[in-house]
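[Discussion] Sanity-checking designs against the backbone

I'm trying to build intuition for which residues belong where. Below is a structure token string of 246 positions. I'd appreciate it if someone posts a full sequence so I can compare it with mine line by line.
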């Protein structure tokens, strides 16, 4: 179980997050939503230990910073350098670097984990393909495989459904359902709207603080969205072409 208690983050005098508290239970699939600049990425970075914060972040009652191996992160595709000369196999093998130690050759156990992870995302036949030669959906599956090979209890995913094909979406949804049944916890930063939000067990609506934390139907009300997005609500409505209420 992930517990965040009274978390605050400041950047150069600007308050990015204020008194954020939340709990993610084993087996839950939670969507993290909010406008640009709401602090979604900042929250993820704090959980990953990549930015200073005040407050507590606990995993199963102990400080998460002492359990980094239990957390896997799948970044946005736009944040990655796809021209870097590395194969799909080696991307996924990066998940085993900490366990193996820097500079050590992978053992049979590591190879089996990597092979199984690539097979699970249906990318094993393309394991020797350069990551830059893969389609967007294939790239996303490779980085999900890297997270799977780490064998964590908590998955943090940043826009995993952005710009992917239907096959990749189906593969990912199947994997997420399996992970949930295994008691793994998934926190997904999302810009999705409408019916797509109903795939989550719960939504966290964030704008520097938690504005709503409940089922998608309870969170996606006009009142909550107005509070989060303010004057931008009409532009968002026009852009998505759908009402906000699920």
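Best answer:
Here's mine. Compare freely.
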């Amino acid at each position: 179980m992930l517990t965040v208690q009274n978390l605050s983050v400041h950047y150069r005098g600007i308050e990015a997050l204020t008194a954020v508290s939340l709990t993610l239970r084993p087996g839950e699939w939670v969507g993290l939503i909010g406008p640009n600049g709401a602090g979604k990425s900042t929250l993820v970075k704090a959980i990953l230990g990549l930015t200073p914060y005040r407050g507590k972040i606990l995993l199963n009652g102990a400080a998460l910073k002492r359990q980094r191996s239990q957390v896997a992160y799948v970044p946005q595709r736009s944040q990655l350098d796809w021209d870097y000369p590395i194969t799909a196999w080696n991307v996924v093998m990066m998940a085993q670097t900490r366990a193996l130690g820097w500079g050590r050759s992978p053992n049979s156990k590591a190879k089996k984990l990597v092979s199984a992870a690539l097979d699970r995302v249906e990318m094993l036949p393309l394991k020797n393909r350069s990551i830059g030669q893969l389609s967007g959906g294939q790239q996303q599956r490779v980085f999900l495989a890297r997270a799977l090979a780490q064998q964590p209890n908590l998955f943090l995913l940043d826009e995993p459904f952005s710009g992917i094909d239907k096959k990749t979406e189906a593969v990912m949804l199947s994997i997420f359902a399996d992970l949930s049944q295994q008691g793994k916890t998934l926190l997904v930063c999302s810009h999705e709207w409408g019916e797509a939000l109903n795939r989550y067990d719960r939504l966290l609506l964030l704008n520097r603080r938690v504005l709503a934390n409940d089922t998608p139907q309870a969170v996606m009300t006009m009142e909550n969205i107005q509070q989060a997005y303010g004057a931008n609500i009409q532009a968002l409505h026009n852009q998505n072409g759908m009402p906000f209420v699920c």
